[in-house]
């Protein structure tokens, strides 16, 4: 007999990795908002902007807010499903395989 309460602990993504992932996500969202700046948005829809500046602003703000929300929800869903560790492992595998190749792996 083994005796005592052995058993392996529940498999979780390493805190370091999860923390890095969370930071990457936040940075990505910030960069996304910066890249999709209002000036850029307005210039894409210049005609509409000239006719309806207030409406353009409102649409832009709703768009950015929805975008951030849906990205965060997607990420949370992945976390909740517990596929994060699997994802990280497959990423490691891709990185390993990429080392043996000449061309970049996408």
TrEMBL record:
Its main location: nucleus. GO terms for biological process: cell division; chromosome segregation. Keywords: Cell cycle, Cell division, Centromere, Chromosome, Kinetochore, Mitosis, Nucleus. Pfam families: Nnf1. InterPro entries: PMF1/Nnf1 (IPR007128). GO terms for cellular component: MIS12/MIND type complex; nucleus. It is found in: Chromosome, Centromere, Kinetochore; Nucleus. This is PMF1 factor. It comes from Nyctibius bracteatus. The lineage of its organism: Eukaryota, Metazoa, Chordata, Craniata, Vertebrata. The gene is Pmf1.
